[in-house]
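Structure ticket #2291
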Amino acid sequence: MNLRIAILFFFCTWYSIAQEGLTVSYSSKNISEVFTELEAHFDIKFSFNSELVNNRLVSLELNDATLEDILSELEKQVSIRFKKESERYYTVKSKRVRLTDTQELDEVLIEEYLGTGIRKTNENTSVIVSPKSLGIVAGLTEPDVLQSIQLIPGVQSPSETASGLHIRGGTPDQNLILWDGIKMYYSGHFFGTISAFNPYITDQITLYRNGTKSEYGNRISGVIDITSDSDLANQIHGGAGFNMTHADAFIKAPISKSVGILVSARRSITDFIDTRTFRNLSERVFQETKISEGNKVFEDDEVTATKDLFYFTDFTVKAIVKPNDNNEISISSLFTKNKLDYGFLIEAYEEASTDKLDIENKGLSMNWNHDFNQNLSHKINVYNSRYDFDYSGTNSISDEFSDALLKKNNIDDFGASYHLDWVFNKSSSIGFGYQYSWNEVEYDLNFSDSESPEDNYHESNLEANNMHALYADYSFRLEQKFLGNLGMRTNYFSLLDKTYFEPRLNMEYYLNSGLRLKVSGEILHQTISEVVEFNTQQFGLENRIWILSNGEDVPILKSSQATAGFIYNKNGWNIDIEGYYRNIEGLTSFTLGFDNLNELFSVGKSNILGVDLLVKKKINNYKTWLSYTFMNNDFTFPDLNDGGSFSGNTDITHSLNWTHTFEWNKFNFSLGWNIRSGIPYTKATDVSETTNGPVINYEKTNGSRLPGYDRLDVSATYKFNWSRNERWKGKLGVSFLNIYDKKNVLSRTYEAKQSLEENAYVLREVNKQALGFTPNLVFRVEF
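Resolution: structure written out below.
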């Protein structure tokens, strides 16, 4: 406790001596004069075309404002944008935003949705996150790509992980995650606790919770479209750093005036250095698994670890070619890997066990954007994505028995698309295109037992699906009056030999200068999803596999969603409220894995009714926002609960996040409080012993709820210069997760535990705890 107080006192002292911001009061002042004043006060330089700022006037009132705050306000008033080339130099360019996400038009309103780096345009329903400019996030030392979007209402992670994102009642496998156009099938490191994408080379993340553009398909929940940096560098730029779980480095270099390259790498350091952060994460991840228990049969078994290896890594290479202003070609590659190798020995019985797990996701893409003229452009994407999951587990007692379980899951995904945008005028445009993709999905399960050969089994499956899709979006807007987007997508899936239609609608109507009404609706389909694989439950980690829909025991998933809400933005206040209704069909008990069903198969649906609310207020350098979600997620399965509805597995009725950020010169502070309802679970009563072994008796499916969850997090960072010319920059930061060490329960299950009495079993309650108090530290250098 004394250490925590000392660290907080240290940063408070830092804050108290920081340099003041700038108070401005502009009334119809020429923006060129504003630039001169900002250059003098902040010791910076602007580079711009004089024609760009001629006769541009601004009116602005701010107290003790940072440079970033002032530039953000200027961007809102004038159709320009600022690009930070170095710590001191900024370029000023005309702001041109794409009406259909590909064709550029004149000025479009861009709103700061939450903190710095999270914004929203009035051109579509997406939220855009820019990690490079992202303000500090409570509990994080670095702008984790997937953790950052959990600040947005309707995006939750009941498992407290980065990749376990549930968007408005959907499951993680129902999200479409793209990296430079490559489909990702495993987006986390260390079993999801850290996202698999390097934030320091990420340009922006586009998140759709609803109103999805018709060019996105074959997923029924959210879309997370991640693009890496594509700007050409005029000199070598790079950076490196570390925190208490991993280290990373990247370099961006020009090859010529029109060609550049970007390379990055990250790797965990925990197999070399033992840190408090990694120990806490390990306890959370491995608790109640074969690894943490050492394959014990009885509590007093003495276990020796014979192997103890775990690491993760990712590596990217990107080439950017811009031969002229009308063409941009990029070739991107990504490789991610998680490797685990554990072994245990119970010497008293000479019982040995091993667990080996390799998870890889690699991909390659080519993207070409070409402008024929100011009104007509196209983009072409070709990609290949490969997912490989390989697990082997063994148990043996010398001269008595041995068993082995092998599990493989492989996906080969190739796709190509052509998209054309045609802008008729400033009010309307159309975008349309064609997509082709080929998926080959394989799984192989093999179990052998020398003592009971009758229990041996081998199950495998290999299927492929071709998808052809035609789509179109028509967009129309009247400045400060109306915005509408009408889309249609047609999918043909060869495995099912069926065609599916997906209408999509999004509209906004300006009631007055500060209030807008918005509505949207969409129908979506999905042919690939994850199901629970019960045979590796003893391992306790990653017991799900990807499979293709076959229309029978694995039906196609279908989602229908409608939303309506209001946006109020005036006088420093931003209020966004949206209600939604979703119906998801094609769910199976294998997809969801109910505790009291084991291998019983049943097909059902879910109905989701929810409200997302965001209230934000900005006062000079201080920002606070409160995001709240109410959601009722009910499942209905004809074969369960007598056909009646019951709460979904991750039905979080109430979720509230209250965040505060304060910026002062080079210091940033953030405090965040997260509180939510406990998730449902199925309560067990006792254990019955049968001729087939012990059987656990349960009450009503998901009829009970865990206690509520709450957590308080804090972060602080300081940025500094290593050199007088500001060429070398550094950052030092600390974060504390769960600072009052609340004992939250993430899940509750039950097991029949063998007692000391022969052939007797007792019921054991298994609670998986959330992270306790977890500190972290970051240090970075960039040049």
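Closing remark: The domain at 237-782 is CATH 2.40.170.20 (Maltoporin; Chain A).
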